[in-house]
């Protein structure tokens, strides 16, 4: 498309430069500075330091009253990259393994293109968010007055999705990403000699039974029609062969789409822990932390996104939500909108998100850029 033809190659170079210099959550100082600089050069009004290292660019055109927010996340992951690409990470142990470098490039390109030819009447807020990867950057931006300072009648976020064919766009009404919670159970006995188990409550045996019991919750305590995941991901105890340890820990994650289901799972974990205490004469301590809420799309916003997407590329209704989580959920709790998946798969062997061999597919930069532009022109149409 001639409208953006001159932007694609510079955006590829920018995306790869950001990839080579990844920054973790709330430390995206260089990335944020680059974003602010390019937005100013494009003629947008720029605000920095929102919710930490967040940046918001404001583009006004005409006198229309409507307002729209488009969000991209900026942070990287604490992973050692294994791609061996020319633009691989130069920051050891830090890696753009979720494609946020591509998200930044697509939204920047859309802002640049719309600034020189908006073809809308209203106010567009382009939101560059820090710390999506587990630290709640969206929550911090909201708490810092994001929607009071930059009102949005609707907000959208675009995330690459390797399991979809490159260029395919998908979303759905209602839940699209799961709520995330973490749990850790500490079981305390007394510790003692391994040859005298009758004198020592066995924390390891208690932990082993706990793992088995936890894995019955979704199958036996949740409605078969409800969706939930409980995975035990940590178990630790002991340090030598002839000592029964005084303590064992079991930890994991819970993913749900319905707050009542999450309530039930948390309740059952507590009940099981109390049963383990009685059965094995240990003391149990449960730490259950609710991280991100479920990402719930507004039905009309999702329908509009699919309609607009079909003008840009192949668009399809996502049949099921994903159990992974996303802190864009905090923005959707404050403002109607939708979370959208952009396919970037290169076939069955495409590395998944958070894989050390992953790299954003530059072939879909143009599709993502055009989708951002189309969403803005649709909602802010004169």
TrEMBL record:
Any note on cofactor binding?
The Mn(2+) ion enhances activity.
Q: Give the UniProt record's GO annotations in the biological process aspect.
A: diaminopimelate biosynthetic process
Is Kinase among this UniProt entry's keywords? Answer: no
Tell me the keywords, alphabetical order: Hydrolase, Manganese, Metal-binding
Q: Where does Mn(2+) bind?
A: 98, 100, 133, 159, 354
Q: In Gene Ontology terms, what is one molecular function of this protein?
A: metal ion binding
What are the required cofactors? Mn(2+)
Name the Pfam families on file.
M20_dimer, Peptidase_M20
Q: Does the entry feature the keyword Manganese, yes or no? A: yes
Q: Which residues form the Peptidase M20 dimerisation domain?
A: 180-273
Q: Which domain of life is it from?
A: Bacteria
Put simply, this protein is called Amidohydrolase
- Lineage of the organism: Bacteria, Pseudomonadati, Pseudomonadota, Alphaproteobacteria, Sphingomonadales
